Amino acid sequence: MVTAVYPGSFDPATYGHLDIIKRASLSFDRVVVGVLHNSSKSPLFSVEERVNILEKATKNIPNVLIRPFDGLSVNFAREHDAQVIVRGLRAVTDFEYELQMAQTNRVLAPDVDTVFLTTSLEYAYVSSTIMKEVARYDGDLSKFAPPEIIQALQDKLQEEKSK
Ligand code: ADP
Questions:
Q1: Active-site residue, 41 included
Q2: Domains of the chain
Q3: Gap between the terminal Cα atoms of the chain
Q4: Residue-level pLDDT, tens digit, the chain, 163 residues
Q5: Sign of the dihedral defined by the CA atoms of residues 141, 18, 156, 76, in that order
Q6: Which atom of ligand 1 sits closest to the CA of residue 86?
Q7: Contact residues for 87 (Cβ-Cβ < 8 A; gap 6+)
Q8: CB under 6 Å to ligand 1: residues?
C-alpha cells in the first residue's frame, strides 16, 4: 500500500490543485492532502476553512483525505506512513525551489521520495495568488476553480472589505 502526501497552502484550492489530487489518487493507494497551518504567506483563509473547501471539492474521491498540518512535510509524511511527497510543477519558475525542497527533504528523510506531477496544460497559469488578484478586481474566475470555491472566495473578500 503506497501512501502519498500532497502538502501545500491551498489558499484557496484551484483547478490546478484539484487536478493534481485527482491524478495522484489514481497512482497511489491513498493521498493525504496536507494543508499548511503556519504559512509565512499570511493566508486569506484560515486553515479550517481551507481544509473544509478541499474536503467538499474532493468528496467524490474515496482514497483522498484532507488534514491540516504544521511544520515539516517529511514529518507529516511519516505521521501518515507515506512513502511519497507529491508536488505539482507548473513552469521552470517552480523548478528551482521545488528541486531544493526535494533535496532538503531527501536529506531529512531518505526513506521518503518526492514525486512531481507536471501541470495539465489548461491549468499551467493557475495559482491561488493570481486567482485572488483576479477576484479582487472582479475578473472572471470560472477557469480558476469550481463555483463553490469561487463563491467562498468572493464571500471572504467581501467580509475583508467590510472589516
Ligand atoms: P505552496 O505554498 O506549498 O507552494 P500551493 O498551495 O501554492 O502551496 O501549491 C501546492 C502545490 O501545488 C505545489 O507543489 C504547487 O506547485 C502545486 N500547484 C499549484 N498550482 C498548480 C497548478 N496550476 N498545476 C499544477 N500544480 C500546481
A1: yes
A2: 3-124 (3.40.50.620)
A3: 48
A4: 999 999 999 999 999 999 999 999 999 999 999 999 976 778 999 999 999 999 999 999 999 999 999 999 999 999 999 999 999 999 888 899 999 999 999 999 999 999 999 999 999 999 999 999 999 999 999 999 999 999 999 999 999 888 8
A5: negative
A6: 14
A7: 6, 7, 8, 98, 101, 102, 114, 115, 116, 117
A8: 8-10, 14, 16-17, 20, 87-88, 90, 94, 119, 123, 126-128
What is the reported pTM?
Answer: 0.95
DSSP 24: H
Residue of 90, 130, 131 best suited for mutating to test ligand 1, as the one with most atoms within 8 Å of CB? 90
What element of type H or E holds 35?
A: strand 30-36
For 8, the grid coordinates are: 501545500
User: Among 22, 37, 90, 156, which one carries the catalytic annotation?
Assistant: 90
Residue 80: active-site member: no
The rounded Å distance from CA 128 to ligand 1 centre is: 8
Q: What is the DSSP letter of 138?
A: T
CA–centroid distance, 32 to ligand 1, in Å, is: 15
